[in-house]
Amino acid sequence: MPSASGLTSDQRIRCRDRVVQAAKLSLANKDQVSYTEGPKRWNGIKNRRNAALGQVAHFGDCSSSCAWWLWNGLHLLFGLGDVVNGTNWTGGFTGTMYEHGMVVQDPKNALRGDCVLYGGPPGKHVAMVVGMTNGVPMVISQGSEPGPFYLRFDYRPDAHQIRRYI
Q1: Phi, psi of 161 (to 5 degrees)
Q2: CA dist 62 to 55, 71, 127, Å?
């Protein structure tokens, strides 16, 4: 599958490492992360919170969390523009994520850093693939206040599409 971001193969590996590091940092510090659908959800990017320095985005919903995790790899590491939402890293939601990236046809082909979108367009939820267990994609999902959570990608029955941005 070609690159959705334009990065080389080696750069994509480094980017995926950074993106998953950011997602796992949120999971490990979930007591410092508050769920919100308000404007604070973009503070991770707005305040340039760098996961490589151990800095957590303290607010987020599902789509802004996935965008912040991807921003850590795509933008902070490689200076790329917003290939996730197309808003110059200033906003977006699950619906704008449907409009960008590339579709991964089979869950077995999912890679770390890919996003699982739930519900058909414009979408109801999004989570990030952080690994595989017995051939099943595992995700980190920030969809409620006690989250984020580490779950199977199909923990919701409406898993609709996997998209690749890296």
Answers
A1: -160, 145
A2: 18, 14, 7
**pLDDT value of residue 2:** 75
What domains can you pick out in the chain, each with its CATH number?
9-164 (3.90.1720.10)
pTM for this one?
0.97
Q: Per-residue pLDDT tens for 29-41?
A: 999 999 999 999 9
Give Cβ neighbours of residue 109 (< 8 Å, ≥ 6 apart). Answer: 1
Q: Rounded distance, CA 15 to CA 32, Å?
A: 24
**If we measure between CA atoms, which residue out of 17, 25, 10, 15 comes closest to residue 79?**
15
How do residues 7-29 score in pLDDT, each as one tens digit? 999 999 999 999 999 999 999 99
**Structural contact between residues 165 and 74, judged by C-beta atoms closer than 8 angstroms:** yes
Tell me which residue has tokens 């070609």: 2
Q: Give CA–CA dist 18/22, Å, rounded.
A: 6
Across 44-62, average pLDDT? 98
**Tokens representing residue 140 in the block:** 């980190």
Report the SS3 class of residue 108: helix
